[in-house]
Every structure is written in C-alpha cells, then in structure tokens.
Design a protein that fits this description.
This protein has 175 residues and is an alpha/beta fold. It contains four helices and seven strands, in the order βββαβαβαββα. A five-stranded mixed sheet has the order 3-5-4-6-7, sandwiched between helices. Strands 1-2 form a two-stranded antiparallel ribbon. Bound molecules: zinc ion (ZN).
C-alpha cells in the first residue's frame, strides 16, 4: 500500500480513518458475557449483559421488553434478526392455523417461552404465510420444531410433543 509509505503528520489523524485503539462498538461486535438479542417488537438487535438478563431489559428503540417470555411471530426479516444474527438460541415452531396438533403445541410453547425467557427465544413461523421459509427448511409436516443457535440448526423434531419431552429434548440439544 503506497499510502503507508507517506510520513504521517504528528498529531493529525488521516481523514476517513478510525482513531486507533478506540474499540468500535456496534451490534455485530462480539462481547464476552453479553447476549445479542433481537427485540420481539421492532426486531432491532440489542446487547444484553448476561448478568442483567433477568432484570427485564427493555429495547432502547421501542421500549418493549426484550426478553418478554412470549413466542414471537417470525416473517423473513424477523427470522433473519432472531435466528441468523442474534446469539440467543431460538426454538422455531413451523405451524399453521388449521393444524390440530399445532394448536395442541401452542400452550406448551407458551410455557417454554415463559420458563426460558432469559435463555431461549421461541419463534413461530406460520407456514401458510411464510412459504419461502418453510421451503428453505424443507418442512414436510407440521408442527416441526427446529432449534437454532448462531444460525445453525442444532436439532429438529416433527410432530407434537408434551412439555416434559420438549424440555428434555431442549436440554440435550443445548448442552
Ligand atoms: Zn424494539
């Protein structure tokens, strides 16, 4: 690089270059002991120190509770934020309103979302409305549950399961 050979003026910063040794903080920079969580309401990415996850943190942008303990409906944009960019593991329920077993699963998922509010995001993809997402993950039957962490599929479960079975399955996959 030819620019490197130029002698820098003492005390002057070259325009357009960041000041050295000042860490750039943005939502993509990993920080130890912090969770990167997508807001359930506006889907902004928010950094939550793990030690403060239980203190009902709020979204700086929309003021909604970040770890609300409720399932979040995911369209393609929200899916990208919660599953692909956030660091919190996400259990995604691929479901449809006409599906009886899916309706049976709903209260089970509500409970898991509440019980694991600070450690797991529960997302719901309506496969009738989000056919691209259903196709992308080759959903052949519903309900299908997929557990993601860091955008990677950790485990998949097709068919309705009870709360105890779901809990065991989650604990095993997240170990
Ligand atoms: Zn928000």
């Amino acid at each position: 690089m030819g620019a490197m050979a130029a002698k820098p003026r003492v005390g002057a910063l070259e325009p357009g270059r960041p000041r050295p040794h000042v860490p750039l903080m943005n939502t993509e920079t990993p920080v130890a002991d912090a969770l990167l969580v997508a807001c359930p309401h506006c889907h902004s990415l928010v950094r939550v120190p793990e030690a403060r996850a239980g203190e009902h943190p709020k979204c700086p942008r929309c003021k909604s509770p970040i770890l609300s303990g409720e399932p979040v409906a995911l369209d393609a944009g929200a899916f990208a934020a919660h599953v692909e960019r956030a660091s919190l593991p996400v259990l995604v329920d691929f479901w449809a309103p006409w599906c009886g077993p899916c309706r049976m699963m709903a209260p089970v998922l509500d409970r898991v979302a509440a019980q694991r509010a600070t450690t797991l995001r529960v997302g719901k993809v309506n496969t009738d409305e989000q056919q691209l997402l259903a196709g992308r993950f080759a959903i052949r039957s519903i309900p299908t549950l997929i557990l993601f962490r860091g955008g990677q599929e950790l485990a998949r479960q097709s068919g309705a399961v009870d709360a105890a079975t779901l809990s065991r399955w989650l604990d095993q996959a997240l170990r």
